[in-house]
Each structure stands twice: as C-alpha cells, then as structure tokens.
Amino acid sequence: MQERDLLEKIKELRRELEDKVNGVDFPEKDSLEAKEIINEIDRLLVILLKKELEEYQKIGVKD
Questions:
Q1: Mean pLDDT of the chain
Q2: What residue spans define the domains of the chain?
Q3: Which among 53, 51, 49 is positioned nearest to 63, based on CA atoms?
Q4: Most distant CA pair in the chain, distance
C-alpha cells in the first residue's frame, strides 16, 4: 500500500471511530478510551504528514 493510501485509510478510520463515539451512547470509560485513541491517531497523522511534506520539499514540490 502506498504511503498516501495509508494516510487516507488512517484518516477514514479516525473519522469512523469519532462518528461512532459521537453518535452512540458509549459507556463513559469506553468513550474516554476511544477519545484517547483518536488523539493518538491525530498525533501519528501529524508525524506522517510532516514526513510527507519534508519529502515533497526535498524534491522541490511546493504545496
């Protein structure tokens, strides 16, 4: 799987998890755990997107 495809899949899964947390009556403990997972996903996405930006900058592509 290409790195770009992986990023898109991660973002899609994050949205799905967030929708489930916000749309269903989760027990509070599960909701907190899900929100922690969402925060971790966000942190990893930032790392991956920074890496992708650095790669574009190396080859001279501007965003």
A1: 80
A2: 3-58
A3: 53
A4: 49
